[in-house]
């Protein structure tokens, strides 16, 4: 094939789901410079050789090669009836069987392409986030924004536990991409969703707690966006006698009201962890923070979570909506945020 295949849209999202923890960070310089890939990626042997550069390779054969490669990574074959790819201009948009080609409308920005195999690239998650609006609901895209800017990875294609990892993108990165490509399809909606996304969630449970606060009232959330995740609180010297730790981090923090929301999962049932949690709450309360704890049991039951969210709203100075219609929306949101949790979270 003359040009490499660029995975995009849902196929790119599927790729990042299975490959993100070990994804190589080889950026492509240009789609049209045959020598650029090796110079950016380092030694050629570092990239898988799939045979996409074979002379006279038919597109149908290339589709089969890419499909087999993605399946080998863990993408279910049934998700690959059509492989989403990206081209720069409309004249490149043929419709071969097995491919769904999308048009970017300009040269594809090379700093948002990752080379994953010889002749195969994938759009990075900043670009994929914008594209996600074409198949994700607004809530799914909101959650995806948190996951892109998180310090963990949860594979939506499996039932495994989440993996702790370094933060790969920031909200500022995603906003910058939207600003640089504001005329491209999907950027307006993505920029709106990003107003509710925050950096650095350390677990799916923290993401869930944040979404319950920031999601619109029409979606079952509290509609409150002015929060921080993992807000650091240094313990003043005069309170050091109350706790061993020199600082604490509050999972979800609303600065205007001094309200902190903590998620305590099953690991907090350990006796030593429970003692540390008690010290944390003692010090934070002494410092004037209004602390509210959410548990996995509350997330598992509609009425318990509703009461807890009423307490959070009250502490933040927000209206408590106890109507049946809102409780239905809130329960739908509850079910949405916990749908991929494993049983021991």
Describe this entry's structure for a reader.
The chain is an alpha/beta fold and 345 residues long. Helix content is 37%, strand content 15%. It contains 12 helices and 11 strands. It has helices at 9-19, 36-41, 59-73, 125-131, 138-148, 171-180, 187-194, 204-214, 271-286, 296-300, 302-316, 324-337; strands at residues 5-7, 83-87, 99-103, 113-117, 120-123, 152-153, 163-164, 228-234, 247-254, 259-264, 290-295. A 4-stranded mixed sheet has the order 8-9-10-11, sandwiched between helices. Strand 9 (247-254) and strand 10 form a beta hairpin. Helix 5 packs across helix 8 (204-214). The radius of gyration is 23 Å and the shape is elongated.
Overall, the morphology is elongated
Share in helix = 25-40%
Q: Which class best fits the helix and strand makeup?
A: alpha/beta
How are the strands ordered across the major sheet?
8-9-10-11
Low-confidence stretches: 36-44
Count of helix runs: 12
Average pLDDT level: 89
> Can you count the beta strands?
11
Strand content: 15-25%
> How far apart, in Å, are the first and last alpha carbons?
47 Å
Quaternary status: single chain
Main pleated sheet: 4 strands, mixed
The value of Rg in angstroms is: 23 Å
The helix/strand series, from N terminus to C terminus, equals EHHHEEEEHHEEHHHEEEHEHHH
Keyphrases for this structure?
345 residues; alpha/beta; four-stranded mixed beta sheet; three-stranded mixed beta sheet; 11 strands; 37% helix; elongated
